[in-house]
Design goal:
- The mean pLDDT is 98.
- The protein has one domain: Divalent-metal-dependent TIM barrel enzymes (TIM Barrel, Alpha-Beta Barrel), CATH 3.20.20.
- It is built from nine helices and eight strands.
- The chain has an eight-stranded parallel barrel with strand order 1-2-3-4-5-6-7-8, surrounded by five helices.
- The protein has 258 residues and is of the alpha/beta class.
- The structure holds the ligand O=C(O)C(=O)[C@@H](O)CO and magnesium ion.
Length: 258
């Protein structure tokens, strides 16, 4: 049976953030992930993890001004200092929270910038970040994101992200394969997972349309969970979806589809 982590940025959102940890444990999760820890001292989050016997498996580097629509800055040539500071911040939280994988958002291509320059900047920044994290045994992940939800994002297809990973040549730079985004951008889910398992550090799930829980849309999750088992995927699967009608009432898929 796959190992599922509750995404606390999307599940249990009727509760204040620090109360979501206990709710996830009570619902049966042994691990959690979320977008960003930076609004809380690491010790407060660590206390929640300890109190509920939970493991934190993923969070993101600071993304720039999220409320203003920024989605990372790795591809922004004029923001190198800010990017390097964001990597250091993520490293410090990862060490304090014993997290072994962090997600670096590539960013939206700045208006007027040549896509080749954005890609070259992203590549150099990812190498820098991977090298800073490697001595601590921390993996850096990049995730292709669908262009319907996030127009202008640098990485939209698995092949683009895999090309960056190959070009970077850093063993701790891996793919975050979000089944929802990949279904919307390219399909070919089973073949892509099978062909690239060694490069996949983390999987996330939601169904489409709607980005709700597995079983609510067009993706055959029973098949994909069996495939991940068959292939021996031993990483975590982040439940990164908007529950169709409440988090607890929407957890039935875990037993129904496994
Ligand atoms: O949206 C997603 O999918 C993510 O995994 C986030 O980390 C980035 O928005
Ligand atoms: Mg995702």
């Amino acid at each position: 049976m796959p190992k599922f982590a509750a995404n606390l940025s999307m599940l249990f959102t009727d509760l204040p953030f620090l109360d979501r940890f206990g709710a996830a444990r009570a619902a049966g999760f042994k691990a959690v992930e979320f977008l960003f820890p930076y609004a809380w001292p690491a010790e407060q989050i660590a206390a929640q993890l300890r109190a509920h016997g939970l493991r934190l498996v993923l969070f993101n580097l600071p993304p720039g001004d999220w409320d203003a629509g920024e989605r990372g800055m790795a591809c922004h040539p004029d923001r190198g200092d800010e990017f390097r500071a964001s990597v250091a911040a993520a490293r410090d939280y990862a060490l304090a929270l014993n997290v072994k994988q962090v997600h670096c958002m590539a960013g939206k291509i700045p208006p007027g910038l040549a896509p080749e320059t954005a890609h070259a900047t992203c590549l150099a920044n990812l190498r820098y970040a991977a090298d800073l994290l490697a001595p601590h045994g921390i993996n850096l992940l990049i995730e292709p994101i669908n262009h319907f939800d996030m127009p202008g994002y640098l990485l939209g297809r698995s092949a683009e992200a895999l090309a960056v990973i190959a070009a970077a040549g850093r063993p701790n730079l891996l793919l975050q394969y979000d089944v929802y985004h990949m279904q919307r951008m390219e399909g070919e889910l089973s073949n892509t997972i099978r062909a690239n398992l060694a490069r996949i550090g983390h999987v996330q799930i939601a169904d489409t349309p709607g980005r709700h829980e597995p079983g609510t849309g067009e993706i055959n999750y029973r098949h994909l969970f069996a495939l991940l088992d068959e292939l021996g995927y031993d990483g975590w699967i982040g439940c990164e979806y908007h529950p169709a009608a409440g988090t607890l009432s929407g957890l039935g898929w875990i037993t129904e589809l496994n």
